[in-house]
Automatic annotation (TrEMBL), chain A:
<protein>
    <submittedName>
        <fullName>DUF1800 domain-containing protein</fullName>
    </submittedName>
</protein>
<dbReference type="Pfam" id="PF08811">
    <property type="entry name" value="DUF1800"/>
</dbReference>
<dbReference type="InterPro" id="IPR014917">
    <property type="entry name" value="DUF1800"/>
</dbReference>
TrEMBL record, chain B:
<dbReference type="InterPro" id="IPR010869">
    <property type="entry name" value="DUF1501"/>
</dbReference>
<dbReference type="InterPro" id="IPR026444">
    <property type="entry name" value="Secre_tail"/>
</dbReference>
<dbReference type="Pfam" id="PF07394">
    <property type="entry name" value="DUF1501"/>
</dbReference>
<protein>
    <submittedName>
        <fullName>DUF1501 domain-containing protein</fullName>
    </submittedName>
</protein>
Amino acid sequence: MDRRDFLTLAPSRKKTAKKVNTSRTFSGLNPYTGEWGRAQVVHLLKRCMFGAAPADVKHFEAMTLDQAVDALLQPNANTPAPPVNNYGADTTGVAAGAPWVLAPEGDEDLNDDRRASYKAWWTGVMLNQERTMHEKLVLFWHNHFATETQTIGDARFMYKHNVMLRNNALGNFKTLAKEVTIDPGMLVYLNGYLNEKTAADENYARELLELFTCGKGPDSLYQEEDVRAAAHVLTGYKVDKVAITSYFDATKHDITNKQFSSWFSNKVITGKTGEMGTTELDDMLGIIFQQHEVAKFICRKFYQFFIYYEIDQNAEENVITPLADIFRTGNYEIKPLLAALLKSEHFYDPLNMSCLIKSPVDFTVGLCREFGVQFAPAANYAQAYPQWRALQNAAATQQQNIGDPPGVSGWDAYYLAPQFHELWINTDTLPKRTSMADRLITTGFSSGGATLQIDPLIFTEQLADPSDPVALINDALSILYRMGISDAMKTYLKTNILLKNQNQDYYWTQAWNAYKAAPGDAMARGLVVSMLKDLYHAIMNMSEYHLA
Amino acid sequence: MKRRDFLKYTAPAAILPSFINGFAVKAFGGSPLLAALEATATDNDHVLVMIQLNGGNDGLNMVIPLDQYDKYQAARTNIAIPTGNVLKLTGQTKTGLHPAMTGLRDMYDDGHVSIIHSVGYPSPNFSHFRATDIWLSGSDANTVLETGWGGRYLDTEYPGYPDAYPNAEMPDPLAIQIGSIVSPSFVGNGGNMGMAVTSATDFYDLIEGREQDVPNTRAGKELKYIRLIQKQTNRFADAIKAAASKVTNQRTYPANNYLGEQLKIVARLVGGGLKTRLYMVSIGGFDTHASQVNSGDTTTGSHAQLLKNISDAVRTFTEDLRDMKKSQRVVGMTFSEFGRRIKSNGSMGTDHGASAPMIIFGDYVNQQVLGNTPTMPDAASAIDNIPMQYDFRSVYASLLEQWFCVKPADLNTIMLNNYQSLPLINGLACSVVTGVPGVNDDDVLVTNYPNPFTRKTVVSYKSRGGHTMLQVFDTMGRLMATLTDRVHVAGNYTVDFETDLPAGVYYIRLQNGAVQQVRTMLKVR
């Protein structure tokens, strides 16, 4: 399909679209059977991974749509090795280069060091993601079950929380919700460990209903009494700083019966004594998950994260509703939900392409992955961690600091109407994004004796025919942009940028061939690199580059 | 400062480029250095407009050697301009202009044009890209500079940029490029100091607040939003709009003339009071390997059209500025990455060559033809090039000295060398009167004996005192030897030139202050 076709409605649709907003969708959850080509593959990868790296594009282009989605839904084959001491002196005795995740807690300064190590490590895991959507889902769940490392304090809990999200990211949502509830990091973050029968703390119970399961939609009708009841169910959970885990203290648990509201059919959870007290959580999740609103709420969050922030009436009826049915009847398994969504007509609807503003993490990590920016290997922690950290800092200054979203609701861009994703882009963050891209394509970031920089040859060498400037630009744009640009703009990129105002295409071909014939010739290589840098620089400077 | 250090210092600068409706903007974020600024700021409002002729302009068909017309005609039988059609210049018998350039001829006759013969540099590069880099950076043929000559100038004028800019003293972009991405010429220590206006359309979109269409889709909505934010982050947008809005009435520029469109924007910004010092505009299509003239009439064809576009655009631009009473602020200059061969090829075109003439224009520009018509061989071969008479960096240095009033010490910092000063600009421009040494065309300043020679010849030369340089080039323009490069007292000198070079034509070039002379030497077996 010509990429420009995405931007216009099919003729048959135009008729029905006349009276309504032309940007509303009409497609539903039926399996997509249309063209499966570069545009669809890049769309899928940009949404499900961090950027569409050329090698990944090639890899998935060789598959059918079903195969590609199924492959993306496989959990990672390897568990990432834990973060290590890259910060030097460790008062608990962790050697340089050794993991700190099971060491004693140490003081606040040490945990600051470890927090930085943890965030760098997480960025490294994203950069080195496998060909699955596993890492994107970890970020999704981090936004959904938001916690802040500044509150958690203990870096080991931060890491453990991250591992818990990763272990369940493609599993069962109900299980995940339970794991989150008794996760030590979350118990600290929302005061669950202070929630005792004598003085119930409702903090977590409220967020469990409002943010994590039922949501705040018009059909979510839980009551204050439900918050209170849930808080009492959750009394008695504590954290163990030595074992780095949580545990249940039955003596702190409220053993009275818990009465829920009429929205929950006036269910009562019978108070239990001793270790049996922990089964009350299962009982309560059973009650909550009977609400159809739970599945709908989660499906909407997936929709807003992976498709677009606005859910129009068609999408609510023909996507969210059937998707929630799949989710609920499948006992809240995450994979069938995502498989249905990512294989649907709706996902590949041209109207849903190119409309997702890249989040800062997607922008920074995706940029490095697409251009194949070379980071030091993880084993070389002294160099790798500062490099990962530099990238993480860049995303943080662009207002997405992993591990520390603004609050328990996650990042504003995913819930604050009406702007939603547009909140990522403002007069402060946009220059920062562009500045980062500029630095990477020009001088690079120097840290740890190494320079983090885009080598434009790495990306270019993976294109089909880099010697032809027209093919080069078309091919590069088919990966770097999701929107078509005008022929005039393409000519501009070719003649005024790549060819530095020369009119003859063969000057590029000559330069490229000269480089290919003698890759070691510094002059030949330098010329090609400077021409490509100008090209990619211009491409990254345009508004289109911020859309996925 | 070492050249490599530029990179280091560039790194921490926060570069904030963006496109606004495809309107590319480069600007920088900030630290104050106003004290240094006061120390070096010049109190003139002079502007230099650089017109880049992309592709390598065939200078020999633009500025035609009437005194060597037979050799010219013989070397270019299929493309030579008939002698009767060549435009005569007031007071000039040896040099004429292409018949399409009536506008520049008139400006010359009015006394506002300098034509400089055979501008190049030793050992020229024949690649468009490398040669362009050399011209924009002001480097030697064998060195790579990370900064541009314009950027280095702006560094001395506005030290510390981009920190604390824009400010009250300099609220405007330091340099503006129209028609492309920001020129490497504008790269200074703090990164690129220029701003690019991608095209006339984008420029008018900006000043008239128009927006490019986006599709009526979700993607279009988001694209429109991002573009809006990009527009808001363009720190110079308001300054440019304000300047442009002050000019409501301009001359009618020649139709279908892209250079004219660009110069119209420059005139509007200068006329509106923008303090920007450097403008770069460009016109492409000079890579005339084939069919640069029409076979029936060599005064027409693609090259003629290009020269007409330049001449017409520059004339209207000058008149426009004069209407606005701003022409005294502006000097313009044409340059190209190289000239073309002396001999034309079989497809009625010319291949990549070496030196070429430059044209400088403006109210303060001295009326003159600098240098001699190019020394041409009796029977040109395909590889013969026009030997360099003037180094292009001498032109830059002279403009900086005489137009931007840069002090000699800074001049060396900017140009990274001590280049010959040429009398391009009236001394009133910087309130200093530069003595123009009168050179009688027939004075022989350099000669060699014997000539032809087999292995050794004695070069005799006359110095008026001061810096004196004697260089030997081959016909490809490569620097073969530097026989003298020192300060002399006035007098006559000799130096031996002994060489194992292959037999053939060589050029001996004398440079002494503003004076230069090139003569042919013939080595035989």
